[in-house]
Amino acid sequence: MTEHLAATLPGLAPEAALAALRAAAAPYDAPCREVPGGLAVEIWGGEVRLALTGGAPALAVFAPDMRILFVLQDALGSVFEAAGCAPVWDRVDEGALAPGLALMRVVSVRQVSPGFRRVRLAGPEAARFGAQGLHFRLLLPPAGQPPEWPRIDAKGRTRWPEGAAALHRPVYTVRALDGAAGWIEFDIFVHEGGGATEWSAGVQAGAEVGVMGPGGGWVPAAGHVTLIGDETALPAIARILSLLPAGVQGSAHVAVAAEDLPDLPRPDGMALHRVEGRCALVPALEAVEVPAVDRFVWFAAEKRLAEAARKVLRARGLGKSEMMAAGYWAAEGEV
Ligand SMILES: Cc1cc2nc3c(=O)[nH]c(=O)nc-3n(C[C@H](O)[C@H](O)[C@H](O)COP(=O)(O)OP(=O)(O)OC[C@H]3O[C@@H](n4cnc5c(N)ncnc54)[C@H](O)[C@@H]3O)c2cc1C
């Protein structure tokens, strides 16, 4: 690990510092180990060490790159501010763009099928969106206004533009990229009332957007893989299928219109099925056969369907490391 930051936590009791760090690590299942005089937490490829000997509790943060380092600084600021103490850092890049934020230009928008628009963005940081995470947050400034981008403040926290300058921030999936040529592509499922749908209908080549990430999981690592999802998951399913190693067995099931589902490149052992309607996704999950070991089941769709899928997966005996069920959007009415 090459990058490093340090901070003190003035006025915070050692037990409170320990409890705050343990509680913050829990939702990520981040491994915690007791070390002489403190605690070490492994997270996002980096490590946070809390030292409780001597004066005020102190933090040492190690990360594989600057992006993860400053993401950790922001997250730890939030954790300890909630515990009543603002960390005092040895270094703050005040005024810099928020960690992980790349500014890119729109190259093209084209309708690739009746339900999907493909957007190509170009920028010098394109290559880093091809590893460590499949997804990113698209930052769209309000129409007709010069963009104001999130930046690091004096405390090392990310400050987002607010009010009339607030950004629209939907999450998308990298569908394809060429790091050497400096572009990424993503597919927007066109739906009524969508801010990104509306943006993609009117945006001109050359417009500047923010792209924050990557994050949100990678290709499942198992000998047998099942992928199930709705239209919003199709780009992720397509990308995962293209990245799975040759010998993997399993199947993909997508609830999407027939004309929106091309014959996706995939390993010979992966079958591809179209599912008729989103409501058939959970029954498809209930029916699919999965082996007892060396398996991964991946499900992404509307939030309530994902909740139902999680219950099915638990009832079928899959452990946390063998499954993912993610809500990709929230329907206001019926799914
Ligand atoms: C990890 C992850 C990866 C994702 N990848 C993709 C991707 O590659 N391509 C993609 O198209 N989407 C993807 N999504 C889903 C996308 O982020 C949401 O659909 C998001 O709401 C789209 O923003 P918007 O500006 O179009 O709509 P918003 O302005 O956020 O929402 C406006 C209205 O549209 C409704 N709405 C939102 N999504 C849908 C939908 N799919 N169908 C019908 N109504 C909807 C909302 O309920 C709301 O009423 C992903 C989500 C996650 C969490």
Automatic annotation (TrEMBL):
GO terms for molecular function: oxidoreductase activity. Residues 99-221 form the FAD-binding FR-type domain. InterPro entries: FAD-bd_FR_type, FNR_nucleotide-bd, Riboflavin_synthase-like_b-brl, SIP_FAD-bd, SIP_fam, SIP_rossman_dom. Belongs to the SIP oxidoreductase family. PANTHER family: FERRIC REDUCTASE, NADPH-DEPENDENT, NADPH-DEPENDENT FERRIC-CHELATE REDUCTASE. This is SIP domain-containing protein. It comes from Frigidibacter albus.
